[in-house]
Specification:
The radius of gyration is 25 Å and the shape is globular. The chain has 16 helices and 17 strands. The relative contact order is 0.12. The chain has a seven-stranded mixed sheet with strand order 9-2-1-10-11-13-12, sandwiched between helices. A four-stranded antiparallel sheet has the order 7-6-5-8. It has helices at about 20-30, 45-55, 65-75, 80-105, 145-155, 190-205, 205-220, 255-280, 325, 330, 355-375, 390-400, 420-425, 450-465, 475-485, 495-505; strands at about 35-40, 60, 105-110, 110-115, 115-120, 125-135, 135-140, 250-255, 290-295, 310-315, 375-385, 405-415, 430-440, 445-450, 490, 505, 510-515. A hairpin with a 5-residue loop joins strand 16 and strand 17. It is α/β, with parallel strands linked by helices. The protein has three domains: about 10-80 and about 275-445, Rossmann fold, CATH 3.40.50.150; about 100-270, no CATH class; about 450-515.
């Protein structure tokens, strides 16, 4: 049974923050036994719970975000007829092809072309396109008169099929501007083609077959939106990937909805086949006899009995680095799903939401108290976390210490890829801390010191760490975080990252040193 990061079952959708299965799957064997009950309160895509389920653990796959629940339902479902999906796709494709061809086909000098991708200006003017010539992919310029003629047609076109008219929560940090709507993320052409595709899925598919089409549909939305930037250093039509936010550049790449959806449905089918193969087991693993539940509980109120869980794994929200619900509107809106924004644990820069560092700290503390409540005494709780802010780490650290979770293992979880905010900041830590705790049933015994005293001892600790030869950001922050958790220290109104930035200096090589007075 493969648990590699490349397992196709984990590439059916592009939900953020998927941890490498190969890095977290061993935790199942290390801290649980077959038949144990496991919960991930912030399950996201559901990678960890899927790995645990395939190892005969009973899992509770929980997330407050409805698109995460939808992904999990698709991942865990067993009643999908792959042959029916493939047969229906040929029917849908045939009907959609004629519609898409009307939209995309362009005639230049008497020659008809069917673009795969189109480079457009921020104002929407088509500039260039790629097309297939045999096995080659070529680029061709679009004459300005044809481009303007198309824009007039596009502007006047009325989309008959349903599409979401949902306003995006204003948030300048993720380029969500005032009065921006979901439809603003698409050209009229891709909006019409997506709406037509969705109407055909609704018309011909039902049940779990329909769900598989929809998982591919939602996974494809960002691919065929205005959010695909060109990587100009590699060529005007070399594509970047949508990661976070709703920024639309001076130019963007508009992809052919049919061409890219076909790639996504193939990935969904491949992922489902991979899961079903893993589920069938082999002579060594035997049949899967475990159970799974997919729940939509608020992590602050899990609605489970006290001490009913044998192990908890979770990757909690990273403060404001990914405002999950706000960005998930691109998926939730097309499925007519409405998230509970009020109960989301997040830091949002949006003025329309009261989600600051103080509410985040209170909410994380409540969620970790719930973990303590449902976890059996002396059982284990594993946590992965990355944050660009020391205040966010403080919220997590204090919640662990206050709830008397004692560190038993501490390591670095390498990521296959990193978000742009991690890659582009020299001082940012790269990857995630993976900490495993034991629930101590006794009352917590922690240490509290005033802010100045804490600042002084952290400064001394960093100095000693650097003198011992650990000078990179990852190494220093790893050491600080582990020391605070093992020492059961409650952090006051102090940002540990700020102490490092203020009292020490970093060179061009990314190595820290002690400031000379």
């Amino acid at each position: 049974m493969s648990s590699e990061t490349t397992a196709p079952r984990y590439f059916m959708h592009k939900y953020w923050g998927k941890k490498p299965a190969s890095g977290i799957s061993p935790l199942v064997d290390k801290y649980t036994k077959p038949g144990d009950t496991i919960i991930d309160p912030f399950s996201g895509y559901g990678v960890f719970c899927c790995e645990a389920y395939l190892k005969n653990r009973n899992v509770i796959v929980n997330d407050l975000n409805p698109i995460a629940n939808f992904i999990a339902h698709n991942l865990f479902s067993t009643d999908v007829s792959i042959s029916k999906v493939k047969k229906l796709w040929e029917k849908i494709k045939k009907e959609l092809s004629a519609y898409v061809e009307q939209w995309y086909q362009i005639t230049i000098d008497g020659i008809k072309y069917l673009p795969i991708s189109v480079l457009r200006s921020k104002e929407g003017l088509p500039i260039q396109f790629t097309f297939k010539d045999g096995k080659k992919t070529l680029i061709k310029d679009i004459p300005e008169d044809l481009a303007r003629e198309f824009c007039i047609y596009e502007d006047n076109y009325v989309v008959d099929d349903w599409y979401p008219m949902v306003t995006i929560i204003e948030n300048s940090r993720i380029s969500a501007h005032p009065n921006m709507t979901v439809e603003n993320l698409f050209t009229k052409r891709t909006l019409a083609c997506h709406a037509k595709l969705l109407s055909l899925i609704e018309l011909y598919a039902t049940g779990s077959v329909k769900d598989l089409f929809l998982i591919a549909f939602t996974a494809n939305l960002a691919n065929c939106s205005k959010l695909v930037p060109p990587i100009k250093s590699r060529g005007t039509l070399s594509q970047g990937a949508w990661m976070t936010g709703f920024y639309i550049g001076e130019t963007y790449i508009e992809n052919n909805v049919l061409h890219y959806y076909e790639n996504r449905i193939k990935k969904a089918i491949k992922g489902k086949e991979d899961y079903l193969n893993a589920l069938s087991g082999d002579l060594l693993t035997g049949l899967i006899q475990s159970t799974y539940r997919i729940t939509n509980f608020d992590a602050k109120n899990l609605q489970l009995p006290d001490k009913s869980v044998d192990y908890v794994f979770t990757d909690p929200p990273y403060g404001d680095s990914v405002p999950y619900f706000e960005q998930s509107v691109i998926w939730n809106s097309w499925l007519k799903l409405i998230p509970d924004y009020q109960q989301e644990i997040v830091i949002s820069d949006s003025n329309q939401r009261q989600k600051n560092i103080e509410t985040f700290e209170n909410d994380i503390s409540s969620a970790f108290s719930e973990i303590r409540r449902v976890l059996k005494d002396n059982k284990h709780f594993s946590l992965t976390f990355h944050s660009l802010s020391g205040l966010e780490w403080k919220a997590v650290s204090n919640a662990c210490v206050f709830n008397n979770f004692n560190v038993v293992d501490y390591e670095w979880l390498e990521q296959k890829t990193y978000p742009p905010r991690q890659l582009n900041r020299v001082k940012s830590i790269k990857g995630d801390v993976l900490v495993t705790f034991r629930k101590n049933p006794n009352p917590a015994c922690f240490h509290i010191c005033d802010d100045q005293q804490f600042t002084n001892i952290v400064s001394d600790f960093i100095t000693e760490t650097i003198l011992n030869g650990v000078t990179d950001t990852n190494g220093i922050m790893m050491a600080i975080m582990e020391w605070i958790l093992r020492s059961m220290i409650i952090i006051g109104n102090v940002d540990v990252f700020m102490i490092l930035n203020k009292k020490f200096q970093i060179g061009e090589d990314g190595q820290w040193s002690i400031k000379q007075d």
